[in-house]
Design a protein that fits this description.
Blueprint (H helix, E strand, L loop, with lengths): L3 E5 L10 E4 L2 E7 L12 E5 L2 E6 L3 E4 L3 E4 L2 E7 L7 E6 L2 E3 L4 E6 L11 E6 L22 E5 L15 E4 L2 E4 L7 E2 L8 E4 L3 E7 L1 E4 L12 E8 L3 E4 L4 E8 L4 E6 L9 E7 L4 E5 L4 E3 L9 E3 L2 E5 L21 E4 L14 E5 L3 E4 L3 E4 L6 E5 L5 E4 L3 E3 L4 E5 L1 E4 L3 E3 L2 E4 L11 E3 L9 E4 L3 E4 L11 E3 L4 E4 L3 E3 L3 E3 L3 E5 L4 E4 L3 E2 L4 E6 L6 E8 L3 E2 L2 E5 L1 E2 L7 E8 L10 E5 L3 E2 L16 E5 L9 E4 L4 E6 L10 E2 L5 E3 L14 E5 L1 E4 L3 E3 L2 E2 L5 E2 L1 E6 L4 E4 L3 E3 L12 E5 L3 E4 L4 E6 L4 E4 L3 E4 L3 E4 L12 E3 L2 E3 L4 E3 L5 E4 ...
Parallel strand pairs: 1-3, 2-4, 3-5, 4-7, 5-8, 6-9, 7-10, 8-11, 9-12, 11-13, 16-17, 17-19, 18-20, 19-21, 20-22, 21-23, 22-24, 23-25, 24-26, 25-27, 26-28, 27-29, 28-30, 29-32, 30-33, 31-34, 32-35, 33-36, 34-37, 35-38, 36-39, 37-40, 39-41, 40-42, 41-43, 42-44, 43-46, 44-47, 45-48, 46-49, ...
Antiparallel strand pairs: 14-15, 54-55, 57-66, 66-67, 73-74, 80-85, 82-85, 83-84
């Protein structure tokens, strides 16, 4: 287990457990209780880089079952009172060493014979069989060749730096050798002698084991450099001070050379190994301290790094001598076992680290990351300006954790089923943060991203196929089109920044949690639009915030790209599904008009009818576009997005001038959106209010909007609209009507306002054909109207009122209708009706003062400065809906004179003549069949997000 657990108190016991697995700290805190058995005597103690600690204030001996050590350094600490004559002991069954683990042992007067002093003991059933060496004297005692210890007593005894020593085993259990009396000091003795160096010197010959320490037993006061050619017959080298060096030839007559650095956890100082480690031997590096592998070594056995930092200062070739030897066939992989907890389980942990300390270096051999140690394995570069390239494969074991730091390149495949996370620490001064080029489909474990840059160049499933936990503002740069098959879980900040020139596709499911997940798309170097990300898997929960990428360190200049949503995202149930950009939304007239920097959103492209989930889309900045792409590609189906999605739009979208995409862009397909469109003005970065909102429908496509247009512009709550709906692109936009439905709800009916303007710059705006002619619910009303040359407004069987200030637009409107009429074919550009013909139905136009309407028309308030366009019968000159004697009188009074519809010219030939009389006669006493009173309209659910709740809005559910 990881973490910590304590068994103690007056009755704390674990008598029925068969085993205790420790990856953190397990403490038996006996206190002052005498004679209490705390743990089952047969319980196996399995230390996987963990700490087993026993403390007591009275004589106490805890007996447990067999002990196994695994994963880096496992520790046993026995703690007793500061004074007294009692003994505290722990007795284990047989000890088993797994995966070349190291044992660290500590305690007050550890292993000393009782006799008037307080002592601690660690007994191991097979302790004597663990010893290496055959000496019987003071300085040649046998030692456990994979252990070290210290006589100390504290909850923070540290790592053994300065005071660590070899350990032997005798009648008193495990005992550290006395640093003064049980070593040959600064010289060689016999082939079995244990040598301690506390000063520079040369050693050539054979020794039992070598300790390079400190003349003052202080970790920061090193002995210096030891040179020579040395064979360590017991196979153990222990370093206990920062800054020591061995420069020479080193080997062992044992099968394994264990190098333990217990010089504390300094990142820049430890033991430097120069020269050559040689022989047909395995090499194990362990201990929390640092080792610099700076030699050109020729040993042919296996390499295992068990704990602490290991630095390389030169390349590790795929074959031939190098920092990790010249391995024989089958020994090529460098194994990194997860590190253990601090010696006594203090807050600090010591993971296994393989780091580059010098410029740009490569590692050509395979790496195997394994073990269950609590602190994992860290690889990468130590400084911001170094770069490490991994040309060999990397395998992450099923219970292992790999941490990647600094600038690194993975040029081969990553496999396994463990856990990978980045640790940041890179700089763009180097070409990469983390470059991945291999096929990592064989990696099925989890991957957690943080504040880091990933670059993909030809990689296949660069993060494997397991779950990705997004936990920071990660940057992903795809140099070539990259597909990632992972499922994603957002832990906080968002899905990351995507700045590469190529397309990145996420095919797995995305769990957005309860967050507004930021995703940024753009190149980050130049303005404009670049880069594409597609999420084809299903998204659930939360919502998205799409933004551009800052250019350099700028806070005002951004590049943008395209985010494509093609999955079935009905699991997104938030009120808002997606925010595009970040800017200053104006909710009422009290908002100041000041410069307000915006972050553009770029393009959010939708290729699936359910891609927007069940929430609204909110465009909050210029250069932000919702793009509908249906009827093409893999789906080959037109989009039909239901009424749970409303659209809050502003600005003219991504791009400028005639090429701007619009706030909504229909790229392809004959698509339908049933939700409401809310026109929202905002302050742009120049401090100017923008009241124009653009919808672009590309040529060859159509967008049919079956919902209602609401206006949230300043003053809309009083029935006055300031917004202009701009239509661009050669395709057709279908609407139910063009009017600013007011956001004020009176409780029975919704007030309607004249839309500030309708500007059709290209293509067609078509008002849907109503079930009855001139249905009040299909009435369009604007304060200004522009239909550009080549564009078209199709009113169907509905009416239009244009309320104006200043000179009347009637003549221009008549010209537009005349052009569309085209001799009764109604196929020209301008203002037309797809319900008209050459003999019965047409569009009539007149000043409101030419009609009998006063004060209102179809329930809409009108004044004397308005132009009425009405679908009606030919001959209905006064636009009252029926061709009758009143119309005949007007026509007769103007017969054979130049005219317009209101004076009798109902065939639009410029004069009142027999042709007009014939049309009137053919439709005499016939009505256009107008509709009745209109119905109320429910308002969009997300209007409150504009701050409109404080303006007296009554919320209603959509019918």
């Amino acid at each position: 287990r990881s973490g910590s657990m304590t068994v103690g108190g007056t009755g704390g016991q674990l008598l029925n457990t068969s085993a205790v697995n420790v990856r953190g700290t397990f403490t038996i805190a006996n206190g002052s209780t005498a004679g209490l058995d705390r743990v089952n005597d047969a319980a196996a103690i399995n230390l996987k880089g963990g700490v087993f600690r026993v403390s007591s204030n009275v004589n106490y001996n805890e007996t447990v079952g067999p002990l196994s050590i695994d994963d880096g350094v496992s520790s046993v600490a026995v703690i007793s009172p500061a004074s007294g004559t009692g003994d505290t002991a722990v007795t284990f069954g047989n000890l088993t060493r797994l995966n070349k683990a190291v044992l660290a042992v500590a305690g007050r007067n550890l292993g000393m014979a009782a006799g008037g002093t307080l002592t601690t003991h660690v007994f191991i059933n097979n302790g004597t069989s663990l010893l290496a060496g055959s000496g019987t004297g003071a300085t040649d005692k046998p030692i456990i060749p994979f252990a070290y210890g210290a006589t100390a007593n504290s909850n923070t005894i540290g790592t053994g730096g300065g005071t660590g020593s070899f350990v032997t085993y005798d009648a008193q259990g495990v005992r550290p050798l006395d640093l003064t009396t049980e070593y040959v000091q600064n010289a060689l003795g016999t082939a079995q002698d244990n040598v301690r160096m506390t000063a520079p010197g040369a050693l050539t010959g054979t020794a039992g084991a070598l300790l390079i320490g400190s003349p003052t037993n202080v970790a920061t006061n090193p002995a210096g450099t030891v040179t020579g050619s040395l064979n360590l017959s017991k196979g153990l080298l222990l370093n206990t001070a920062q800054g020591n060096t061995f420069d020479g030839t080193l080997t062992t007559s044992a099968s394994e050379l264990v190098i333990i650095s217990a010089s504390d956890n300094s990142p820049t100082a430890g033991l430097t190994l120069l020269g050559n480690i040689t022989g047909n031997i395995d090499v194990t590096k362990s201990g929390p301290g640092t080792v610099f592998m700076s030699g050109n070594n020729t040993y042919t056995g296996k390499t295992l790094l068990g704990q602490g930092r290991t630095y390389i200062t030169s390349n590790v070739p795929a074959t031939g001598p190098g920092p990790f030897g010249n391995p024989a066939a089958g020994n090529e992989a460098i194994v990194l076992r997860a590190g253990g907890a601090n010696l006594t389980g203090a807050a600090a942990t010591y993971n296994t680290r393989l780091l580059n300390d010098t410029g740009s270096l490569s590692i050509g051999r395979p790496l195997i990351i394994d073990g269950e140690g609590p602190s994992g394995v860290l690889i990468g570069s130590f400084t911001l300006t170094t770069l490490t390239r991994y040309d060999g494969t990397v395998t992450v074991g099923d219970k292992a954790r790999l941490i990647v730091q600094g600038n690194v390149e993975f040029r081969n495949n990553i496999s396994g089923s463990g856990f990978v996370n980045d640790n940041g620490g890179h700089t763009l001064a180097q070409p990469v943060g983390m470059l991945i080029t291999g096929n990592n489909s064989g990696y099925t474990g989890a991957w957690q991203t943080g504040v880091y840059q990933y670059r993909f160049d030809g990689a296949t499933n660069p993060l494997g196929l397991g779950t990705v936990f997004a936990n920071g503002s990660t940057e992903f740069v795809s140099q070539t089109n990259t597909t990632m098959g992972n499922n994603w879980v957002v832990l906080g900040f968002g899905l990351g920044n995507y700045t590469g020139p190529a397309k990145t596709t996420l095919t797995g499911n995305v769990d957005l949690g309860s967050f507004t997940s930021q995703i940024r798309v753009g190149n980050g170097t130049t303005s404009g639009s670049a880069g594409t990300v597609e999420i084809s898997g299903n998204m659930s929960k939360g919502n998205l915030l799409l933004q551009g990428v800052p250019i350099g360190a700028s806070t005002t200049d951004f590049s943008t790209g395209t985010l494509v949503l093609s999955g079935n995202n009905t699991g997104m149930t938030a009120a808002i599904t997606a925010f595009l950009g970040t800017g200053a939304v104006v909710a009422d007239a009290t908002c100041s008009v000041a410069a307000s920097p915006e972050i553009p959103g770029g393009v959010l492209q939708v290729t699936n009818s359910n891609a927007l989930g069940n929430g609204d889309v909110f465009i909050r900045a210029e250069n932000s576009t919702l793009q509908l792409n249906g009827g093409v590609g893999a789906f080959e189906a037109d989009l039909n997005i239901g009424d749970l999605v409303d659209y809050f739009i502003q600005g003219d979208g991504v791009g400028t001038g005639g090429s701007a995409l619009g706030a909504i862009n229909n790229l392809a397909g004959n698509n339908t959106i049933a939700g409401d469109i809310v026109l929202v003005e905002h302050n742009n970065e120049l401090g100017t209010l923008n009241f124009s909102q653009t919808i672009r429908v590309e040529s060859g496509s159509s967008l049919n909007h079956t919902g209602v247009i609401f206006d949230a512009s300043v003053g809309s709550s009083t029935g006055v609209s300031l917004s202009t709906l701009v239509k661009t692109g050669g395709g057709q936009l279908g609407v139910t009507r063009v009017i600013a439905t007011d956001v004020v709800n009176t409780g029975t009916t919704d007030l309607r306002a004249y839309l500030g303007g309708l500007d059709i710059q290209a293509g067609t705006v078509k008002v849907a054909t109503s079930t009855s002619n001139n249905d009040p619910d299909s009435l369009s009303a604007v304060k200004s109207l522009n239909v550009a040359a080549g564009a078209k407004l199709d009113l169907g069987n509905n009416s239009l009122v244009v309320e104006y200030t200043g000179s009347s637009p009637r003549a221009a409107i008549e010209a537009l209708i005349d052009n569309a009429h085209n001799g009764g074919a109604w196929n020209g550009n301008g203002i037309t009706t797809s319900s008209g013909n050459a003999s019965n139905f047409a569009l009539g136009v007149a000043e409101i003062t030419d009609t009998t309407f006063s004060g209102s028309y179809l329930g809409l308030p009108v004044d004397t400065t308005a132009v009425l366009v009405r679908f009606t019968r030919y001959g209905d000159v006064n636009l009252d809906g029926t061709t009758n004697i009143g119309d005949f009188a007007i026509l007769g009074a103007n017969f054979n004179t130049p005219g317009r519809w209101a004076t009798g010219d109902v065939n639009y030939d410029g004069s009142v003549n027999i042709g007009d009389f014939s049309l009137l006669a053919a439709n005499f006493n016939l009505s256009a069949g107008d509709g009745m009173a209109r119905s109320a309209v429910p308002e969009p659910a997300s209007l409150s997000l504009l701050g409109l709740a404080g303006m007296g809005l009554a919320r209603r559910r959509r019918a």
